[in-house]
């Protein structure tokens, strides 16, 4: 296992900041770069702060035209001991900082392989990229002596009723979530990270996705045609539901978040044969506007108390089961950060498309698992097939230039 060519703690701090400023991008704050990229007319839209108490990419908003593309990639660690795991985390920190900041890769000379793929050109734009690193429960096995430091509720994701889990698409020691403005930025980032960490981790599975722009307005739609994420908590409420603050957790975990990834195939051909009335009753919303069936606009709050028997919004409608909107269930809400995917066709000639469900929360048991148990056997299960993903713990943020991913865990 080798460390970055730049010395990590001091040399990287000055080297990355220097290249960032030379490229006209501030490492520590979001800003718009109005220069078009070469002759294509594409614009490097923004950067997001890399340093801070929490990682970017959790509550970073993915509005239309920004962070419209994503990738979740799970890795198995191949290092043999905790010391080499630390070096791997140094390298991951180094690459994430550079990629999310942007700058000019070093010229290693004609006798060496180039330091960068040049997929994004000779100067790497930040392009709104965020890199979010999480750890799986398998990292806390006997290999690295971390068993006593495992977050309290971090386990492997077990199948729920109606799941079709495929081991080839499950779990991982590490999970990297990439979000950016353009798909080539995603490709460049995962390729760069894989190149620089090949001696320390091996790709296990990877899924790329995209977010649809609002059509015609409001929240983007999923591949079933319905608006997705309308009820996401925002502002201070979102933070209060996401960041771990339980003193019973290992001290290093405070400020992190439990992450759920579910890869869900949508049987779109089957769905397209269902009547619009039945579709809307399954969701509890109108397909055209996103309004609840008892409302007029997308962000109207459904009034379940006025409809106790489910005559307007059926009792087994998705929105009613997922969020009953009672005082008792208020702290069960999660933050969703989901994308669509399209893998082409399967061996039977059917469209292989669906949803990358990503959710963040303080407590897997209280939040996601409680919600998911309410959704068992909901009408939608005939049209969706969860087949992969896992539970992960998103590390607290990299505080400053002297910090690195997982320092509290591994120090």
Describe the structure.
With 411 residues, the chain is α+β, with helices and mostly antiparallel strands. It has 2 domains: 11-136 and 171-210 and 396-410, Alpha-Beta Plaits; 218-394, no CATH class. The chain is built from 9 helices and 11 strands. The protein has helices at residues 11-22, 82-101, 183-196, 235-242, 268-271, 276-283, 318-322, 365-374, 407-410; strands at residues 36-37, 42-43, 69-77, 130-135, 174-180, 201-210, 257-266, 335-336, 339-345, 351-361, 384-394. Strands 3, 4, 5, 6, 7, 8, 9, 10 and 11 form a 9-stranded antiparallel beta sheet that branches. A hairpin with a 5-residue loop joins strand 9 (339-345) and strand 10 (351-361). The longest helix has 20 residues, at 82-101. The protein is globular, with a radius of gyration of 22 Å. The model is unreliable at 1-41 (pLDDT under 50).
